[in-house]
Automatic annotation (TrEMBL), chain A:
It holds the Pfam family Oxidored_nitro. PROSITE patterns: NITROGENASE_1_1. Residues 18-435 form the Nitrogenase/oxidoreductase component domain. Signal peptide: none annotated. Keywords: Nitrogen fixation. This is Nitrogenase component 1. Belongs to the NifD/NifK/NifE/NifN family. It comes from the Bacteria. InterPro entries: ChlB/BchB/BchZ, Nase/OxRdtase_comp1, Nase_comp1_CS.
Automatic annotation (TrEMBL), chain B:
PROSITE patterns: NITROGENASE_1_1, NITROGENASE_1_2. Belongs to the NifD/NifK/NifE/NifN family. Pathway: Cofactor biosynthesis; Fe-Mo cofactor biosynthesis. It holds the Pfam family Oxidored_nitro. SUPFAM superfamilies: Helical backbone' metal receptor (SSF53807). This is Nitrogenase iron-molybdenum cofactor biosynthesis protein NifE. It comes from the Bacteria. Residues 40-439 form the Nitrogenase/oxidoreductase component domain. The lineage of its organism: Bacteria, Bacillati, Bacillota, Negativicutes, Acetonemataceae. The keyword Protein biosynthesis does not apply. Keywords: Nitrogen fixation. It comes from Anaeroselena agilis. This protein may play a role in the biosynthesis of the prosthetic group of nitrogenase (FeMo cofactor).
Amino acid sequence: MADLKVAKSVSENPCHMCMPIGGILPLKGVEGAMVLIHGSQGCSTYMRRTMAEHFNEPVDVGSSALNEKGTVYGGGENLKQALDNIRKVYDPRLIGILTTCLAETIGEDIERLAAEYLAERGLADLVIVPVSTPGYGGSQADGYYLALRRIVAALAQPTPRHDKINIIAANVSPADIRELKRLLAAMDIEYTLLPDFADTLDRPYSDHYTKMAPGGTPLDAIRAMPGAAATIEMGVTVPPALSPGQLLADEYGVALHRLPIPIGVAATDLFLRTLREITGRKVPAGVLAERGRLLDAMIDSHKHNFAGRSVIFGEPEMVYAVTRTCLENGVWPTVVAAGGAGGEAVSLFKDVLAASPEPSYFLSETDFAEIRFRSAAAGANIAIGPSDGRYLTEKEGIPLVRLGFPILDRMGGQRILSVGYTGTANLLDRITNTLLDAKHHTYRTRIYDEFYKGRRLNLAPAQAR
Amino acid sequence: MAQAVAIDGRQDFITTKGRQISRLKCDDDSIAGAVSQRACVYCGARVVLNPITDAIHLVHGPIGCASYTWDIRGSLTSGEDLYRNSFSTDLKERDIIFGGEKKLAAAIDELVAKYSPKLVFIYSTCIVGVIGDDLEAVAKAAANRHGIEVIPVQSSGFAGNKAAGYRAACDALFRLTAPATPAEAALVGKDRSINYLGDFNLAGEAWIIRDYLAQVGVDINAVFTGDSSYGELKKATRARLNIIQCAGSMVYLAGRMEEAYGIPYMHVSFLGLADTADSLRRIAAALGGGSLSERAEELIARETAKVQPVIDGYRAKLAGKKAAVYVGGGFKAISLIKQFRELGVEVVMVGTQTGRKEEYETIDSLVADGTVILDDANPSELEKFMTEQGADLLVGGVKERPLAYKLGRAFIDHNHDRKHPLSGYAGAVNFAAEVYTTLCSPVWRHAKMGGDLDG
């Protein structure tokens, strides 16, 4: 495996977004929570647009709408006014405040402002979770885990031991969240799943519309997380400083199991085995049958998949899970780009890729110009990741299997199911069928060009027979 | 639901025609926490300039600003496609502390080496405005180094609202189009052709209008900025007339060009049959009438005969429906009110993100008593007024779509990433078809939670 890091002063077609958008997601998975972005109006609007398009849901996010005055003299008044207005309209039980480049650069102390606000207004029941998410400070993946950690830090209380286990979910789809809950229910396990945006970001149509989406992890359940038997965190690529599971381990002694997102046979096995070990519950026959069906699917499609040479990009945790799944099926990774992955995560990727029989590039800080260049050079024929990968299709003819966040050019980003055995079979079908489509569309011309070479076939014409 | 207007200060941004005499407040900054649908100064500048096809659009700032705006517009090109890339200096913490000027200069050097552009726009973002990088100096040095034009766009996100971004873009365009030599200055207004301002060639709309005007006998000199190029824009001051479609974004530039070069301008609209015909007539008249006017009448008659029966067919199916409009600019809202009238649909709520005072006055004069008019709305207000006013349909952008659907209302995309044109006669048919498609879909009949299973 060759390592590549090109020093450049310009990013050419970004492969990731900024921290605050990552912070919105977990807050949308907490019951009664509303989000406020401390910065200029555009940030929240762009993020809302991206999320509305991915989830096909209204995504309300407030902004402190910092203007020149607030930028020069401090944005405290704007922030407090914004909190007042958010409370008036949405009546939330928890408000997450996420900062932006602007708020961070002018040095806004949101911890102090939040405390001041609660005291000034005499609010005992409202929880405010300030999260520092400068846009220049990391990618959306960092924002996602940091916001989760701050939510846990703000709410967690010393709690007597109980039988529930904590499940910290990565940025997977609402459909994936539902699948995780189904598996946990199938094993008869009591749990606190954080975040839980299965319903809040994929709401059923109903006769009544409420401004605050029903669902989400209950605040009391988060408060009680320190009493859990263990934490399973989907976050092997996550630095400990951003990890909510690490916080629960360090401050409350909750055993932490850091696992990859359960996509692929081995990762799903590991997830279920860990659940079994923690709780003593058996993996039910129905789930084992799903495993059997996945193995059957893998065997059915293995020759087709072996023709795949993949480009995998997106948030590090998802990229890690998909890379392992590709390796399980012979869709050998050629370019693996996990925007923002650093430190230990890099060696994690290198270790996994070392198992590949074919060469691969790992790119931790990159853009699509570089991914395109590397993919073309390596002869990649399938891309797996969010919608921006359509650029690889347009420019290099590499078809894209859409997965992750955000999916902006297709319907149903919220319904893409990839976790568990069933989800993996689903993902594998999408990969195999994309490879088959490409083959079926090109093989006539390709073989004609390669072998026909203008000669007439020596066959008697039909009418002469 | 009354809480929707409970936000202090929002009351002045909402009026009901016939019931209040107070003047609507507009072009003000959004209220904190009001969950405005608006974007920022940078966004305004970026959407206006981005359709210039052969320019490098370099965002000087953190990655997000470039990320959220990569190729999200449906502006088409007939030539180069450099504009479809999103370039960013991807500022990190160390750049915020030590300044980003060196990185910016290096970024320009790398891009010039790779793409050999004639023109580079550098967009300023929030933090650049705060750390005070001297874009002007970096641009000047880079321009000298490479012998190309490098134009800074002063679009720090917090310095006003989206409309301020339009002005920043217009300032950049004014600078770009200024005659550089006495020979060029001598050619100002000498060409017979016209400039077409405020069309971004979404789904080929500028091409449709170019074709109509060609049939009338009018040449377009430059489009600002749909499918335009450096070369075209450099000759912009030779035109004898500017016509403006999107006034919100371009009237400021037209005003500056009139002031500096004496090039007159007029407002046009190619949305809907009535506005399209009216605009073609006025352009022909402004350019001397005669055979131009004759050809305009012929075109109007020919195209109207083709599409009127189609529109009438839809009209018969849509009679009595009510629409709500919440779009970016005032000109679009005005045209939509008229266009809905052509379809027999009554507009019961109208709002915009960046409408101007004159535009709201026009809106007020067009709508019936009882119509709610509002500036810089938020989801809560949209929900309240769509429900109260009994709107069957909402016109808006990406963020508004899921809200309308959740409320069980039809929806029309009038946003900038659409893939079908809404201008001219072809566009009017598309619009009518889309209104029909969404209002008359069978899904609404089935959209009842539980159906009869929950009783």
